């Protein structure tokens, strides 16, 4: 893999058809001088064969297959690690169900130039398939963001964290802040990482850069909203990782999180809800593990 300025990192797992849409959208970007790295979480649906076909057509697509499914967090950790090893300057991070508009990267690049490269990360405006905001991917706006009204007038909203759905990271700027935490497996790895690297410089939501997040439904991932049995087990990571983040924010946030846990258990128990006892089981298991969960951040040497 040759060194280049920008590396688009796409993490995938058994969603070959969505990945194909994603790759097609990346290939047809108006700014096309960048490399694409697909991190495959040990898919069993022929993802490796699909990417091999793309590699034969395009010389800027690379593939890294993992021996086992380490979740989105593990996938993004590995992708970022490779980006640093190969001396890229910027990482454009996304899931396999992210479909960028043709000008999405060009808009981010223009903002990068207008800011004279003084930023930690930029985030595209994430929409759902019907054109409304994707509820899962609304970034956290900075406190007192209105004081940056000059950039707001240019369509740049100051933020302090965002999801890994079209997140454009200034690698040289944030190198000393380490990599995403692979142990998270899924949930909150993006929020934790972007909040951490936001200390390296300003970060913005770029309204002119748009992507579509092709989720099945445009809802959040709260326990009571989950209606697919295979997703119930993920509640372990939701409550374990959430507890870890609460502890990092101090005593008050920790107490609030404990209260939130009991409120959700009560709500699931005494309202009409699918798989309620399984949900409570994995929520409680995650909550208990969260008391002691303290993953280490790996730093770039």
Brief synopsis:
It is built from 11 helices and 10 strands. It is α/β, with parallel strands linked by helices and 301 residues long. The protein folds into 2 domains: 6-213, Spore Coat Polysaccharide Biosynthesis Protein SpsA, Chain A; 223-292, no CATH class.
Q: Domains counted in the coordinates: how many?
A: 2
Strand content: 15-25%
Proportion in helices: 25-40%
Order of helices and strands: EHEHEHEEHEEHEEHHEHHHH
Description:
- This protein is of the alpha/beta class.
- It folds into two domains: 6-213, Alpha-Beta Complex (Spore Coat Polysaccharide Biosynthesis Protein SpsA, Chain A), CATH 3.90.550; 223-292, no CATH class.
- It contains eleven helices and ten strands.
- It has helices spanning 16-27, 47-57, 71-85, 104-114, 149-152, 171-174, 189-197, 229-232, 235-248, 251-269, 276-292; strands at 6-12, 35-40, 61-65, 90-95, 98-100, 121-127, 140-141, 156-161, 167-170, 203-213.
- Strands 1, 2, 3, 4, 5, 6, 7, 8, 9 and 10 form a ten-stranded mixed β-sheet that branches.
- Helix 1 links the parallel strand 1 and strand 2.
- Helix 1 (16-27) runs parallel beside helix 2, helix 9 runs antiparallel to helix 10 (251-269) and helix 10 runs antiparallel to helix 11.
- The longest helix is centred in the last third of the chain and has 19 residues, at 251-269.
- The chain is globular, with a radius of gyration of 19 Å.
- 42% of the residues are buried.
């Amino acid at each position: 893999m040759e060194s280049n300025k920008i590396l688009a990192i796409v993490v995938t797992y058994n969603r070959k058809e969505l990945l194909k849409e994603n790759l097609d959208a990346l290939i047809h970007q108006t700014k096309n001088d960048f490399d694409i790295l697909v991190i495959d979480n040990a898919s069993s649906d022929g993802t490796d064969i699909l990417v091999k076909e793309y590699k034969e057509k395009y010389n800027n697509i690379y593939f890294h297959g993992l021996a086992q499914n380490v979740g989105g967090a593990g996938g993004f950790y590995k992708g970022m690690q490779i980006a640093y090893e190969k001396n890229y300057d910027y990482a454009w991070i996304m899931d396999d169900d992210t479909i960028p508009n043709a000008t999405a990267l060009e808009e981010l690049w223009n903002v990068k130039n207008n800011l004279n490269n003084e930023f930690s990360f930029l985030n595209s405006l994430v929409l759902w398939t019907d054109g409304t905001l994707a509820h899962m991917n609304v970034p956290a706006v900075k406190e007192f963001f209105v004081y940056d009204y000059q950039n707001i007038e240019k369509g740049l909203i100051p933020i302090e964290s965002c999801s890994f759905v079209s997140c454009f990271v200034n690698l040289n700027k944030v190198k000393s802040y380490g990599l995403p935490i692979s142990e998270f497996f899924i949930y909150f790895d993006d929020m934790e990482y972007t909040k951490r690297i936001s200390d390296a410089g300003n970060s913005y939501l770029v309204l002119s850069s748009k992507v579509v997040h092709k989720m099945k439904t445009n809802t959040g991932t709260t326990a009571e909203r989950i209606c697919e049995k295979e997703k119930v087990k993920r509640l372990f990571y939701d409550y374990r990782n959430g507890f870890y983040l609460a502890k990092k924010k101090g005593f008050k946030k920790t107490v609030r999180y404990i209260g939130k846990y009991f409120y959700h258990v009560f709500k699931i128990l005494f309202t009409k809800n699918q798989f309620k006892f399984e949900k409570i089981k994995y929520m409680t298991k995650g909550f208990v593990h969260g008391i002691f969960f303290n993953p280490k951040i790996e730093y770039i040497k």
